[in-house]
Write a structure and sequence with these properties.
Layout (H helix, E strand, L loop, with lengths): L1 H47 L13 H9 L5 H5 L3 H8 L3 H15 L6 H8 L4 E2 L4 H6 L4 E2 L3 E6 L5 H11 L7 E7 L6 H10 L4 H6 L1 E5 L3 H9 L1 H6 L4 E8 L3 H6 L6 H22 L2 E6 L1 E3 L9 E3 L2 H7 L2 E7 L5 E7 L6 E8 L2 E4 H13 L1
Parallel strand pairs: 3-7, 3-10, 4-5, 4-6, 6-7
Antiparallel strand pairs: 1-2, 8-9, 10-11, 11-12, 12-13
Length: about 375
């Protein structure tokens, strides 16, 4: 009898435990279903709610928004094009939250596929900055294009810096508040030259100089930091920046990374730097003009041995590539070697005191001088 009662008690206890476990599982399932319903509701609310600024993103409070803004992620576009690792390092959020912020920002910005005719309408917003030379404008399809990187490479004295000065002056004709940012890495910027070019263009030299923002970069990291700060000049300080000049792009990288052992690190940093320049150009629809140094290939027996520094990294990231060289009788020759939709072309120009001009203008003035 005792043994039977013991068995019955054991069976009863096992049944009670099974019931408890079943009830626990049922409760857990109910909680999971409720959580899923809450997440679905939150997603619907975020989709229905119009997201226009960072504070509207789900899970972003005042402190997180401030951290993101301090690190340069002050717009939805900046977050949409960022990587999860960048958001994690800058704001301290988890990787899953960072991915969610990026996805929501991309949905709000509508960054999916678009048809060719829609893209053509957006291309209508792109402007061309006059180079002061008809031949130069012609090989570039009207001038230096906004939303793109234009690279000029050549030997010393080929006119790279002079073109940067001329563009910094000419860009101000696109509005009273239009300004240029000049990142000087080789101490080649001269305000006296800006005044000469401004007088040659019929502009007020003092006003032109005020609209040219110059920063001297002392190493490659400083150069990269200055390029990233262009975003803040536009979004926080309200500057109407239409041109960014980097003169020169590769000087610091070439001096700091010496030897084949540092080649990979140099190219990675240079690649990141050019991606920042490309993003700034695309987001703010401004023109990026960079100058590049060259090297001579001793194993080149035929043709021009001059080759640009930076290898394929710079070549692939530059939208337009122009090779500058010295011509006859003090002239300069510009050759378009790479462009997305333009054929290879060549033109001759002159660098004079009042600015860059066409070859024919020099000969015409020379003829008048001797005639009179």
């Amino acid at each position: 009898m005792l043994a039977k009662k013991m068995e019955e008690d054991m069976v009863g206890k096992e049944a009670l435990e099974e019931q408890k476990e079943e009830s626990k599982e049922e409760k857990l399932d109910e909680v999971k279903e409720q959580l899923d319903e809450v997440e679905v509701k939150e997603e619907k609310q975020t989709k229905s709610k119009q997201i226009t600024k960072i504070e509207d993103l789900p899970g972003v409070g005042a402190a997180t928004a401030e951290k993101l803004m301090l690190c340069g992620f002050d717009t939805l576009m900046a977050i949409a094009v960022a990587t999860p690792g960048e958001l994690v390092n800058s704001s301290g959020v988890t990787e899953s939250v960072a991915r969610k912020l990026i996805n929501v920002s991309r949905d709000a910005m509508d960054m999916g596929f678009e048809s060719g005719d829609e893209l053509l309408k957006k291309r209508a917003l792109i402007t061309k900055i006059n180079t002061n030379c008809d031949g130069f404008n012609e090989i570039l399809g009207g001038g230096v294009e906004t939303g793109a990187i234009t690279e000029c490479f050549g030997q010393y004295g080929s006119g790279k810096t002079q073109i940067g000065h001329q563009l910094a002056v000419n860009v101000q004709s696109y509005g009273e508040d239009a300004c240029a940012v000049y990142i000087d890495t080789e101490n080649t910027f001269r305000p006296e030259r800006i005044k000469q070019f401004a007088e040659g263009a019929g502009l007020d030299p003092d006003k032109v100089l005020k609209n040219v923002l110059v920063a001297r970069a002392y190493n490659s990291d400083h150069q990269m930091l200055l390029a990233e700060q262009v975003d803040e000049l536009i979004t926080k300080k309200g500057k109407n920046v239409k041109l960014l000049v980097v003169d020169s792009l590769t000087a610091h990288f070439r001096a700091e990374f010496v030897g084949r052992g540092t080649l990979a690190e140099r190219q990675q940093k240079l690649n990141k730097h050019m991606h920042v320049l490309a993003r700034v150009a695309d987001v703010h629809n401004l023109a990026v003009y960079v100058t590049n140094q060259v090297m001579s290939k001793p194993d080149q027996f035929f043709g021009d041995p001059t080759e640009a520094i930076g290898g394929h990294i710079v070549a692939h990231n530059s939208t337009f590539r122009i090779y500058l060289r010295k011509g006859k009788k003090g002239s300069r020759v510009a050759k378009l070697v790479d462009a997305p939709a333009l054929p290879d072309a060549e033109c001759t120009f002159w660098v004079k005191e009042e600015g860059i001009s066409d070859n024919w203008f020099f000969f015409f003035s020379y003829f008048l001088y001797w005639l009179l």
